[in-house]
């Protein structure tokens, strides 16, 4: 009887570890569901919107300008942030706020990206902490899941004029 109970317990633990490893690999390498919080990506992504983030693009260096990405926060490595890629390595970017009279520009260094929120007036982004290492990118947002009336692909950047093509 005890032997039978121990056998069932170990089988259960074995299956739990197996499926746990499969789930970990799926969420780490394929993608997952993310709940976004904060106003920095409004109007594209509202507070409490649920999106799907795929993680393969970061592994294959397929991140492009205009993509919305999930990134480990440069200010707090325990949290993730959601921002739009404005510039890739070697790109010239506007480093000043839209309200600044004098505009300043810089080049994104090798191995980094320039990130900004769509809500420029209420976003802590690369304008505050500078270029972000590519290695901090966790995934690229593909589409919005919730709310259902907004299900589907994401809107283009309301700040398209910030993309420089020099």
Automatic annotation (TrEMBL):
Q: Which domain of life is it from?
A: Eukaryota
The listed locations are: Mitochondrion inner membrane
**Family classification:** Belongs to the peptidase S26 family. IMP1 subfamily.
**Which PANTHER family does the annotation name?**
MITOCHONDRIAL INNER MEMBRANE PROTEASE SUBUNIT 1 (PTHR12383:SF16), PROTEASE FAMILY S26 MITOCHONDRIAL INNER MEMBRANE PROTEASE-RELATED (PTHR12383)
Q: Name one GO cellular component term.
A: mitochondrial inner membrane peptidase complex
Q: Which residues form the active site?
A: 40, 83
The protein in question is named: Mitochondrial inner membrane protease subunit
User: Which InterPro entries is this protein grouped with?
Assistant: LexA/Signal_pep-like_sf, Mito_IMP1_subunit, Pept_S26A_signal_pept_1, Peptidase_S26
Residue limits of the Peptidase S26 domain?
A: 16-97, 104-146
Q: What EC class is this?
A: hydrolase
Q: Name one GO molecular function term.
A: serine-type endopeptidase activity
Any idea of its EC number? Answer: 3.4.21.-
Q: Which UniProt keywords apply?
A: Hydrolase, Membrane, Mitochondrion, Mitochondrion inner membrane, Protease
An individual GO BP term: signal peptide processing
Complexes and interactors:
Heterodimer of 2 subunits, IMMPL1 and IMMPL2.
Q: What is its main location?
A: mitochondrion
Q: Which organism is it from?
A: Chauna torquata (Southern screamer)
